């Protein structure tokens, strides 16, 4: 894996309206994977895409973000989503679940164990703590922690590259996560950057290059958390500022395809 000393920007996207129409995304090679972190008004939604044109949606954002999310997916020519992964039952994560089930030919949904969903013609699986599963070749997902309310933190690995989706805002879970993760490349920060995790010690242990903070209209950013990220020389991508961020991964490296270079 190539060690990075700063952000690597390939500004290959054309943003031609406030609705963020996306064009000029280069095609994927067989050993590549796209990870898209969507800038929407409220909530979390991320998209994985492989070279075969198959898609996994991680969370569905708030219903108030439906229009913006739909238009970005349309710009990416996404009309089918094979799998939806839900990591949190609150509306900021599940607000458009029914919409996607009705309009995107979803085949499989992975939900927290204490979440109930009855849907015909859709396979419904529950997260099993510490039981990894492989969705595509070279793409492994390892559940790491389940909170008392059912929130899931998981590690996504593609070859040597890794993204930690942290969904517990409390630092108490970090000791257990340190033992399971090792160094990672990208950190998705929990609770829209409003919590106490990640701590300084945790950041030093996992040593990410960049972090992602989704927009929320109800959560207030924890300034001391941002100070920790900056002090540890981790690029902070506030999606509300940077816009939707593309990360193109291959088996031993990644590059960032972003709207602009407005990084904290």
What's a concise summary of this model?
The chain is of the alpha/beta class and 264 residues long.
Helix and strand arrangement:
Elements: E1 33-37, E2 46-50, E3 55-58, H1 66-75, E4 83-85, H2 91-94, H3 97-103, E5 108-111, E6 123-126, E7 133-136, E8 139-146, E9 152-158, E10 161-165, H4 174-181, E11 186-188, H5 200-206, E12 210-213, H6 223-231, E13 235-238, H7 239-242, E14 245-249, E15 254-258
Parallel strand pairs: 3-4, 4-5, 5-6, 10-11, 11-12, 12-13
Antiparallel strand pairs: 1-2, 1-14, 2-3, 7-8, 8-9, 9-10, 14-15
Protein name: Hydrolase
Keywords: Hydrolase
Organism: Gracilibacillus pellucidus
Would you mind describing this structure in some detail?
Keywords: Hydrolase. This is Hydrolase. The chain has helices at residues 66-75, 91-94, 97-103, 174-181, 200-206, 223-231, 239-242; strands at 33-37, 46-50, 55-58, 83-85, 108-111, 123-126, 133-136, 139-146, 152-158, 161-165, 186-188, 210-213, 235-238, 245-249, 254-258. It has 264 residues and is α/β, with parallel strands linked by helices. Strands 6-5-4-3-2-1-14-15 form an eight-stranded mixed beta sheet, with no helix packed on it. Strands 7-8-9-10-11-12-13 form a seven-stranded mixed beta sheet. The two termini are 24 Å apart.
């Amino acid at each position: 894996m190539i060690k990075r000393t700063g952000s690597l920007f390939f500004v290959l996207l054309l943003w031609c309206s406030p609705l963020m129409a996306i064009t000029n995304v280069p095609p994927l090679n067989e050993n590549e994977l796209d990870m898209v972190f969507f800038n929407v008004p409220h909530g979390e939604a991320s998209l994985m895409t492989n070279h075969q044109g198959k898609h996994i949606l991680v969370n569905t954002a708030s219903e108030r973000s439906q229009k913006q999310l739909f238009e970005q997916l349309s710009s990416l020519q996404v009309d089918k989503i094979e799998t939806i992964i839900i990591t949190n039952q609150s509306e900021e994560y599940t607000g458009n679940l029914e919409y996607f089930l009705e309009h995107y030919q979803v085949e499989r949904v992975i939900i927290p164990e204490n979440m109930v969903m009855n849907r015909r013609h859709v396979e419904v699986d529950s997260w099993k703590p510490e039981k990894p599963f492989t969705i595509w070749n070279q793409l492994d997902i390892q559940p790491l922690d389940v909170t008392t309310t059912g929130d899931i933190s998981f590690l996504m690995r593609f070859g040597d590259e890794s993204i930690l989706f942290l969904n517990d805002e409390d630092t108490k879970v970090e000791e257990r996560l340190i033992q399971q993760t090792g160094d990672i490349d990208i950190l998705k920060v929990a609770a829209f950057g409003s919590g106490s995790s990640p701590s300084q010690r945790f950041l030093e242990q996992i040593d990410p290059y960049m972090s992602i903070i989704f927009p929320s209209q109800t959560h207030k950013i924890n300034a001391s958390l941002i100070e920790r990220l900056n002090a540890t020389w981790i690029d902070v991508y506030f999606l509300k500022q940077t816009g939707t961020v593309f990360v193109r991964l291959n088996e031993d490296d990644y590059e960032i395809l972003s709207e602009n270079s407005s990084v904290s």
